[in-house]
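Long-time lurker, first post. I've been practising inverse folding by hand and with some scripts of my own, and I keep getting stuck on stretches where the structure tokens seem ambiguous. Below is the full token string for one chain I'm working on. Before anyone asks, I'm not after the true native sequence, just a reasonable design that respects the backbone. If someone could post their per-position residues I'd love to compare against what I wrote down in my notebook.
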């Protein structure tokens, strides 16, 4: 009886500690891609605005 309980406990511990075979789902992947695209667009606009300011400053001197 004691051996069975010990075997059940060991089996439960081994099963609980085994890695999951299911891949981790990518939650909100499309939203992440849209956010990355928006950030890239914002960076492009920022660079364009800086270039425009620089040209205006050079012309006004």
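-- Answer (accepted) --
I ran through it position by position. Result:
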């Amino acid at each position: 009886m004691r051996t069975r309980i010990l075997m059940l406990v060991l089996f439960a511990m081994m099963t609980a500690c085994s890695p999951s075979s299911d891949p981790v789902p990518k939650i909100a992947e499309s939203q992440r891609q849209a956010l990355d695209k928006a950030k890239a667009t914002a960076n492009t606009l920022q660079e364009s605005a800086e270039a425009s300011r620089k040209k205006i400053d050079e012309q006004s001197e």
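A couple of notes from the structure itself: DSSP finds two helices and no strands in the chain. The helical segments are 2-17, 29-60. Happy to go over any region you disagree with.
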